[in-house]
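Bit of a strange request maybe. I'm writing a small parser for structure token strings and I need a real example to test against, not something I typed by hand. Could someone generate the tokens for this chain?
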Amino acid sequence: MTWYRALKETARSGLTIDRTGLEPLLALRGALGLAIVVVGTLALFGPLAAVSSAFGAFQAVIATFQRSWRPRPVLALASGGSLAVSTFVGYLTVGHLALFILLIAVWTLAAGLAWGLGPTVGIIASSNVAIMLVTITLPTSVATAAGHAAVIAAGGVVQAALIVLLPVRRWGAQRDALADALAAEADYARRLRRDPTAAFDPEPLMRARSAAAVSPRQARRRPAELHGARGVAEKLRPVLASLADPAFGVPEQGPERERVRELLAAAATVLDAAAQAVRHGEPPRLPAPALAALRTPDTDALLTGPPRRAALRLSALLADVTETARGEGAAAGHRDRPSLLKLLPGALRTVRAELRRGSPVLRHAVRGATVVVASYLAGTALPLGHGYWAPMTAVMVMRPDFSQTYARSVARFGGTLVGVGVATAVVETANPGTYAAAALAVLCAFGTYLVLRTGYAAANVGISAYVVCLLWMGGEEAGQTVPERIVLTLIGGLLAMLSYAVYPAWETPRLRNRLADWLLADCRYAAAVVDHYARPGEPDDAGQDIRRALLAARDARLAWQDALSRAADEPVRNRGLSHAAADAAGEALGKLGRGAMLMEAHLPAHEDTPVPAAAGLAKALRADAERAAKAVRERRRPEWRRVEEALAAWEESHEIIDPGAALVGEALDELSDALPPKAGPDPKPTPPRPDPPERP
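Reply from user aminoacidic:
Good idea to test on real output. This should exercise your parser:
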């Protein structure tokens, strides 16, 4: 993609508005908490302290809107407390330029490294740096700085208390995640009616798994309909796939296929009803025709062998889903979510792992620290006043990837232009008093919260207007600062965009590494499944091994998809992996995972006869996967000689080869065809990236 096209696409995405993200009740609660904080602080301590408390309460609500499964009060408290510390430490050093420059460099570097812990932590840390640049200008002494820090923390406490006292759709995020997983299974069942080999994106199941992690206290309060349904949804996917696949005994035409389509349609209807019930906390409404189709005795007459077993298994799993949706299912265990203090050692290990050459997170941290320092020096040197607008813009728009940084820069400038212009016109015309300006600020905050999830441009209009109203409340003439705010915003955004062009962290050159990681994880998952065919009666933890390998394969697939979407907007060449090759390789690995999933759906029982040839195939998969992953990284064609020999030995052993195993072999051949070798001498080998520690 050329630079012109990349800039055009990122600008368009930055100005896009998604109207489905409106949440008025959450916005109203956040604005109510902000009003309580501002009015109370204004009456007790005066306008300047009220401005500080307003920033703390405002940022606490922004933190609760982030995509996180941690309890919202915890996010509000963490945001308010960290901003209070940043403000106090920043005020102590702001009088000494060299010391303050060192502080914001270290603070921004730490905020950049925080992205290694996830987007929620990264956004909160970056926002703290941005708001700290404003709040440190308000106190006039160390004692008042401590007071401002205290009221900032109090703003977070008030918002956390309101979340507890005025809950809005309690467990709503967890309900949505589980309902989305069930709805994705329903959509999959419908697609299988038309395409018996349709692919399935496991991302909804992954989100539901993340949402299912709760603390022991939350586990005692979790609604009954959130117990166990996710595990049933995980089991449904391979059952649906094996029931529809012609390789397992159901012909593509005839009465058996019509019976399978009927079962898939009934399953989709039941799953949709269960998803609706879970989402809204109400009993499921199950249509009688769907229940009748699942209970029809024709199953015994039309379906035999593996399809019949899959049909019976499907009926049993759907019964479990409906019982759970009614709240009648047995209480299942829960995935523990450790407290923030328990996460600290793991977080430090994760950040330490990013301190390596080539880490995109480290490059983002260095880039951010450099740009913020340069923006602050430029804002201070220019005769415009209010120089903090430039570094504040830079730290707010910078993200670890190209597309978000450029899209947010365009949206930030457009939003600031509109927000500052409108707010300035209002306050200059109406000339509101202190309390009236506070009311306008709360109104702007409500608008920001309302559109926060619809797009950054719309949200930034409200944020800019909010800051103007707060500064007017604090006694600053808004009309005198409009030009410099816009100019400094433009400077900060341009420096952020320029920094990514000069010191980028392109995802395109790393696509082959991502593909190799996914290939390795998929082969390990397939090997774990195949290995169980060779020793079904051994009392080991094969099921846990398969589950761990499956989760690792899903994580690798998601990392590949994220990298591919980022690379699509980057103005760089394909570096050895064209769009066509990437699509073909992704389809081949999806087919590989599907073959392993189909084999998992028909794992032999403990009393079944072992298949000795399966052990050879599992060993060959593990051995060839290591070499193939290395070949993909080095831009060579992967080879599967051992796997081909193991499959041939399985056929020669007069054992019936599993259709899933045959599908695995086909997928590996298709992957090799999708990745032709580079012409000329082999390039210098690219060393594999070390496995990062598990994220908290």
